[in-house]
Design brief:
It is built from eleven helices and eight strands. The chain is α/β, with parallel strands linked by helices. The protein starts with 7 loop residues before the first strand and ends in a 16-residue tail after the last helix.
Length: 287
C-alpha cells in the first residue's frame, strides 16, 4: 500500500490529542472514523473537533465550505469494531501502558491483517504494543504534538520488529499527505522530545515551588532568553498536568533517574484535579 492509498483512517480516542489528529487527517481529504468508549465520549469528541474548526474559520485558516467538507469526512463510533474497514489506525488513548496494550490486542482482532496500527504514545515503548497486538511488524509509533493542527512535527518510532515498509508508509503519509515534518527515534521510553522535555518542565516546577522566581518570571525568562514560544510552566498546563505526570512515571520506571522524579507541586495539583488548561486550574495559578 502507498501512503496515497490510505483513504480511511481510524483514530482511537478523541480527547485533546485524538481530536486534533482527527481534524488534520480530515482536512487533507481523508475520511476519518474515531472510536470512543461511550456515546457520551463520542459526542464530546465531536464537540472538540467542531470548536477547533469554528476557530479555524474565525481566524481565516479555513473557509466555511471547507469546514463543511471536513465535517462530512468525520464520524464517531462507541466500539473499536467500528474501525473494521480502515486502512490505518492511529491510537491516541490515555497514556497508560495496560490500557494501550488492551486496545492493541483488540485492534488486531477487528482490523485487516495488513492494516498498520500506529500509536500516538509520547513515552511507552512501541515493542510492548507490538507484542500486545500479536503483529509487531505492523505496529509503529506516530507521535503528534499539541495542538496537532498547528505543530509541524511527528516522531516516527519503529520497534526492532517493525517492518521497514511500515516505517516508510507512515513517514510518507506524515510528510506527503499530512504535510508534517517527520523525525525518527529509537524505541526507548520518551523518544526524542519527552526525554528532553520532561526534565526541563520538572526543573521549572522545582524552581517555582521553592520560590526561586515567580511563575510569570520563569516563563518570561525562557520565552525571551531561549526564544521559546511558551514558557515551561505554560507548556505543562497546555499538555495537561496528569499527562506530564504519567509520562514522567514511565520515564522514571524505565531509567530510574532522579531527573524523572515528579516534583511535589505536580503530584499535589494532579491529586487536587488541577490539570492545567483542560480543568481551568493548574500551574497558571501559582504566584
Amino acid at each position: 500500500m502507498r501512503a496515497q492509498d490510505i483513504r480511511h483512517v481510524g483514530v482511537v480516542g478523541c480527547g485533546l490529542m485524538g481530536s486534533g489528529i482527527v481534524e488534520v487527517v480530515a482536512r487533507v481529504g481523508v475520511r476519518v472514523t474515531y472510536a470512543e468508549g461511550t456515546q457520551e465520549l463520542v459526542a464530546a469528541g465531536a464537540a472538540r473537533v467542531e470548536a477547533s474548526l469554528t476557530k479555524a474559520v474565525e481566524r481565516s485558516k479555513l473557509d466555511a465550505d471547507e469546514a463543511k467538507d471536513v465535517r462530512r469526512r468525520i464520524s464517531g463510533v462507541a466500539d473499536l469494531a467500528g474501525l473494521a474497514d480502515v486502512d490505518l489506525v492511529i491510537e491516541a488513548a490515555t497514556e497508560d501502558p495496560a490500557a494501550k496494550a488492551a486496545i492493541f490486542a483488540r485492534l488486531a482482532d477487528v482490523t485487516r491483517p495488513d492494516v498498520v496500527l500506529a500509536s500516538n504514545t509520547s513515552s511507552i515503548p512501541i515493542a510492548s504494543l507490538g507484542e500486545a497486538s500479536g503483529r509487531p511488524g505492523r505496529v509503529v509509533g506516530m507521535h503528534f504534538f499539541n495542538p496537532v493542527p498547528v505543530m509541524p512535527v511527528i516522531e516516527i518510532t519503529p520497534s526492532a520488529g517493525t517492518d521497514p515498509d511500515v516505517v516508510e508508509l507512515v513517514r510518507t503519509f506524515g510528510t506527503d499527505v499530512l504535510g508534517k515534518t517527520c523525525v525518527r527515534s529509537t524505541d526507548e521510553a520518551g523518544f526524542i522530545v519527552n526525554r528532553l522535555l520532561i526534565p526541563f518542565l520538572y526543573d521549572a516546577m522545582r524552581l517555582a515551588e521553592r520560590g526561586f522566581a515567580t511563575r510569570e518570571d520563569i516563563d518570561t525568562a525562557v520565552r525571551l532568553g531561549l526564544g521559546h514560544p511558551m514558557g515551561p510552566l505554560a507548556v505543562a498546563d497546555l499538555i495537561g498536568l496528569d499527562t506530564v505526570l504519567a509520562i514522567g512515571e514511565v520515564l522514571h520506571d524505565a531509567f530510574d533517574e532522579p531527573r524523572y522524579e515528579a516534583p511535589a507541586i505536580l503530584t499535589r495539583l494532579v491529586a487536587e484535579g488541577k490539570l492545567g488548561r483542560k480543568s481551568g486550574a493548574g500551574l497558571s495559578d501559582l504566584p
